[in-house]
Amino acid sequence: MSFWNDSYQRNADSISSYIFNSLGREDGLPNDLDVLTDSELPDAVIVLAWNYFEKVYINRRDLLNKYTQFNQKHLEERAKPNLEELKSHKLVFLSNLLRVVYEYYFWTQNSFRMPSFISTRILERLDKITPASEYGAQFIWIERSLPSALTMDMLTSEKFETMRKMANDVNNYEEKFNEHINKGIAQSEGKILVYEKQINLLIASASESQKSLKEYDEKLAEYKNDYNFVLLSKAFSNLLSTKKEELKNTSFITKAFVTALLLIPVLVLINHIQNWYEVTMNINALAYYIPIFSLELLIFYFMRLYYLEERTIKTQMLQIEQRLSLCEFIHDYVEKKNKDGSDKDSWLLFEKLIFSPIQLSSENIPSLLDGATTVAELAGKILPKDGK
């Protein structure tokens, strides 16, 4: 556990409060301490020294622990400023505080000049005004003996002894350093070889993964092409089912009109034989036969419309079935076309046929089937070549 730690914070706060309330603040002191009287000087030095110590304790506590080892060892707990000592023995409190501050400054030298409150002139004045009863105050010892005591303590420390041994036995330590360096290099080379093997394994694994991904990509592309033709075939199949339903309904209505067209003359003939409704063959007969004749013409007209609609639907179904048939072989046809390098115009004819709109009549069908004929002829030329 470090000497200066968080547990001292409460004591430090109480000392700060007492000093600021009883002795004043730093900004109220003159820059030149020599203008102060002997009674004012101790209080002023306490304010300045405590402000310096408190800043180091708060902001550079690790350095404070590191560079006050001498006073920690010799003063022990007295090195920690105490409020009760400040109230009862102000000069002893100040002496111990200046010892700690002086030691810290001695090793760090973190300012361009020594703080004025630990200068030779101020320490000698403090020593002169210290009464004999305050035998614990050591201001003149701080000024004359503390630097040499700090130096001797450092020279007799274990760290300095180790450094001196290293200086006296440079060759031996050089061999040890070289031994450790060579050992570290050998370990590094071994680790490098291991890492190199691992990297090569990773590279090989990455290459295999790349090949696998390439194969998967080719398969996915193949599945995509197949699936595209499946979707196209499915669309034509759905359209064909719709047209079949339309053909069924249209055929039923056409047959109904044909039945009605034939039934009316049969009923007229039976009426003439059975005489259900007597018709006199004179001018009044027109009122009987003209509506029947008009009804026959009307039924014949609608029958003809639905008959033409039926023919149109059959024509459309023929085209759809033709496209379905072409979709079944087009994938193989494309592969053979790319391998053989045949005329690309045939592919354009195939696209024109597949993606051309469904004709509503049978008049334009032959011109469209010419494209299918060309495709079929070209496929027939390619297939024998592959067979060879």
Structure description:
With 388 residues, the protein is an all-alpha fold. The protein is built from 14 helices and no strands. The protein has helices at 9-22, 41-59, 61-66, 69-74, 83-88, 90-108, 120-129, 139-144, 146-155, 158-168, 170-274, 286-340, 345-354, 365-387. The model is unreliable at 365-376 (pLDDT under 50).
Secondary structure elements and pairings:
Blueprint: H1 9-22, H2 41-59, H3 61-66, H4 69-74, H5 83-88, H6 90-108, H7 120-129, H8 139-144, H9 146-155, H10 158-168, H11 170-274, H12 286-340, H13 345-354, H14 365-387
Helix pairs in contact: 1-2, 2-6, 11-12, 12-14, 13-14
Question: Can you summarize this structure?
Answer:
This protein has 388 residues and is mainly alpha-helical. It has helices at residues 9-22, 41-59, 61-66, 69-74, 83-88, 90-108, 120-129, 139-144, 146-155, 158-168, 170-274, 286-340, 345-354, 365-387.
- The arrangement of helices and strands along the chain is HHHHHHHHHHHHHH
The major pleated sheet works out as: none
Note the gap between the termini: 95 Å
Low-confidence segments, given as residue ranges, are 365-376
The average pLDDT is 79
| Quantity of strands, as a count | 0
Beta-strand percentage range: under 5%
Structural class: mainly alpha
